[in-house]
């Protein structure tokens, strides 16, 4: 089998579907909550497709899509046109889905994955925004829930640039991580908020150009499942070719129990969706200045965090854990930058001792210092430090009085920093509160 596998290479493109975390649906004011609500409560004439209903595009969804496309390295388009994609399905009451295939959010560009050791290129074909369909539930009967109908759905389509399944898994994981970092989607695969499709074919190594068929693998809802389904399909296609068979364009699903893919639909003819522009939504135009503004937003993407940690000399085996956990990342950076901890020590404190995970950097500093004999115990000395901090930070006092709890944490942090962590946090907090209450 190894010999046969070494004759062929994988040709793989991914389609990543992601529900956006917006307050409202894509073309109406219904709440975007298709998971926690009772069935069919977040619906209106627009998302039920009743005659005469007027769709109005959700600008927040469009802006989130543009930010995501920019973060992924794709080129933003100045014109987006929503079109009707006509087809019939019980969960699509209108008989068409609004999408923007010909004038999408972005076109081309490529994703930088060098920080993860992948060289690519991993090119984008396009990123478009559309509305999700309703949900069918099959038990003794089929039930329909339209809460999901009209939820903004971003579809990110790559070129068939992947020759390794592992690379594709890392790529999709990175997309999930970026979406979470930018708060564009919680990208929860278990809730169906991130769904993957793969276009997969094989060619002989050295063969130029794309194979004349591709198999669409649908409804991949976990990374583990993705790896299993793609590995099976890659091996199956090689076996078919080795047996002298011809492979055709078709859609397949994956049966996890049997660990094999099966034909869902043979596509000998292309679907005719009879696309045409939605007459109730004029083309949406963006000026160059508006698009440029997006490129000035500071994103702090996983790759940026990766670089920050690399530059600080954080050991490699800890970097992925820190990049994946926002609070942990912030806490470690605070220990290193604000409290001048050695990076290796800072990381080790949080990662090697799980009981420390819930502690703030200040609490860590305090706990560390409790073991030293140098603590400041003289209350008048502590009061003096606190008086200085309060005099320097009048705004924080006002903020705290306005109910902003963070302001107190900030002041405690300042006291700890000023005292190089030698003041007991509880004492500092008590004195701070007394002083703030006594101030005008
Ligand atoms: Zn609605």
What this model shows, in words?
It is built from 14 helices and 16 strands. With 440 residues, the chain is α+β, with helices and mostly antiparallel strands. It has three domains: 294 residues, no CATH class; 59 residues; 71 residues, Orthogonal Bundle (Arc Repressor Mutant, subunit A). The strands form four sheets. Strands 2-6-7-10-1-11-12-13-14 form a nine-stranded mixed β-sheet, with helices on one face. The model has no long low-confidence stretch (mean pLDDT 91). Zinc ion binds next to loops.
Topology, element by element:
Elements: H1 2-5, E1 8-19, H2 59-71, E2 74-76, E3 79-80, E4 83-86, E5 96-99, E6 106-111, E7 122-131, E8 135-138, E9 142-145, E10 152-158, H3 165-181, E11 194-204, E12 215-220, H4 223-242, E13 250-255, E14 260-266, E15 276-277, E16 284-285, H5 288-295, H6 302-311, H7 316-324, H8 326-337, H9 343-351, H10 361-370, H11 379-392, H12 394-401, H13 405-418, H14 425-438
Helix pairs in contact: 3-4, 6-7, 8-9, 11-13, 11-14, 12-13, 13-14
Zinc ion binds next to loops.
């Amino acid at each position: 089998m190894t010999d046969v596998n070494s004759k062929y290479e994988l040709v793989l493109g991914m389609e990543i579907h992601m529900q956006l975390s917006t307050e409202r649906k894509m073309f109406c004011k219904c709440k975007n909550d298709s998971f926690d609500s009772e069935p069919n409560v977040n619906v209106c004439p627009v998302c039920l497709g009743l005659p005469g209903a007027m769709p109005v595009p959700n600008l927040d969804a469009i802006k989130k899509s543009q930010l995501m496309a920019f973060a992924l390295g794709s080129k933003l388009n100045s014109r987006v046109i929503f079109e009707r994609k006509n087809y019939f399905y019980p969960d699509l009451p209108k008989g068409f889905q609004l999408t923007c295939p010909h004038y999408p959010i972005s076109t081309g560009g490529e994703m930088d994955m060098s920080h993860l050791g992948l060289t690519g290129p991993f090119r984008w074909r396009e990123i478009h925004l559309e509305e999700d369909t309703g949900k069918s539930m099959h038990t003794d009967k089929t039930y329909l829930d339209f809460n999901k109908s009209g939820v903004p759905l971003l579809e990110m389509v790559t070129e068939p640039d992947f020759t390794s399944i592992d690379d594709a898994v890392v790529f999709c994981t990175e997309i999930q991580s970026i979406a979470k970092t930018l708060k564009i989607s919680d990208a929860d695969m278990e809730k169906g908020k991130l769904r993957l499709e793969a276009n997969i074919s094989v060619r002989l190594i050295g063969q130029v150009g794309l194979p004349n068929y591709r198999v669409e693998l649908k409804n991949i809802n976990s990374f583990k499942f993705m790896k299993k389904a793609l590995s099976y399909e890659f091996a199956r296609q090689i076996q078919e070719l080795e047996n002298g068979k011809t492979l055709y364009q078709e859609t397949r699903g994956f049966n996890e129990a049997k660990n094999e893919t099966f034909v869902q639909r043979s596509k000998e003819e292309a679907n005719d969706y009879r696309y045409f522009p939605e007459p109730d939504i004029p083309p949406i135009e963006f000026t160059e200045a508006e698009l440029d503004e997006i490129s000035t937003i500071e994103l702090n993407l996983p790759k940026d965090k990766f670089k920050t940690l690399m530059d600080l000399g954080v050991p490699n085996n800890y970097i992925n854990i820190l990049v994946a956990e926002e609070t942990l990342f912030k806490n470690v950076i605070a220990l290193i930058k604000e409290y001048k901890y050695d990076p290796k020590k800072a990381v080790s404190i949080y990662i090697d001792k799980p009981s420390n995970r819930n502690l703030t950097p200040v609490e860590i500093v305090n706990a560390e210092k409790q073991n030293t004999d140098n603590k400041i115990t003289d209350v008048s000395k502590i009061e003096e430090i606190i008086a200085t901090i309060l005099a320097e930070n009048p705004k924080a006092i006002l903020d705290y009085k306005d109910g902003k709890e963070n302001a107190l944490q900030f002041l405690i942090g300042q006291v700890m920093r000023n005292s190089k962590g030698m003041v007991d946090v509880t004492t500092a907090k008590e004195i701070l509160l007394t002083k703030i209450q006594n101030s005008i």
